[in-house]
Structures are given as C-alpha cells and as structure tokens.
Prior knowledge:
The protein starts with a helix and ends in a 6-residue tail after the last strand. A four-stranded antiparallel β-sheet has the order 4-5-3-6, with helices on one face. A two-stranded antiparallel ribbon has the order 1-2. A two-stranded parallel ribbon has the order 7-8.
Amino acid sequence: MANLGLVLAIQSALTLSPGGIGPVKDGPVNDICMKAQMVSQTNPPITNQLLVQFDDNLSDAAIDEIVKRLGSTVIDRLVGGKLLVVEVPYPETLVQIESAFEATPGVKYAEPNQVYKTQPDNTGTVEPGVIKLPEVGN
C-alpha cells in the first residue's frame, strides 16, 4: 500500500495542468505512474526481505538490537544506515515480522522489498514487470 501512496505522491507532485499544478489525466507522467503501479502489482515482493526505515536518532547498536530481537538479519544498510534491507528466517513469517517492526518505537515504516526494473530502450515492446520510461527530447 505504501508503494501506491508513493506513486500517487509522485503523480501529484510532478504533473501540471493548464491551470497550474494539479492532476493530469493523460500524459507521460501519468503513464509512468500507472505503469509503476502496475509493476508493483505484477512484481511480487521478495518473499523473505523487508525494507525497514528507522528514526534518525536511533543508534546503530539500538537498530541492530531491534533487528535481532525480531529474528531478522541485516542484509544491507541504505540512506545513512537508517534504511535497512532485512531478511526474515521464513517467508511465512514476513507479514508478522513486518507488523512487529511497524509496532516498534523508532521504526518509521516496514514494507516488503520489491525489485523494480526499467527498460533502457524505447522500442515499443515492454517486458512483463518492467517500467518503460518515455523518451525525453533535448
């Protein structure tokens, strides 16, 4: 659900209507947003990984303790070490561990990790699960 919110936020922030900033029903930005939403629905999450964003004021030691307490393992640290890719021990526990992270003080959000791909050329064909970006002129 957070991915849909991101898509909608991007669409709202980047689209221009004839009367100023506002939603546009047709156009390249709307097409990108719609394709991103479709990809998020067609690309299932990685079954044993979560993205977990922690508050900036938490120490690395406190973050590591939370991850360990919830039975997960740090795979990667992103964005200054406060956004983590964590692995859960069993795919069946992903939803429960996601909920446990979200209920933990100091955690901003937790969501399943997903892989997004972009297609580098504009040949008119799009592979399944790939976001195709429109060409940009000079």
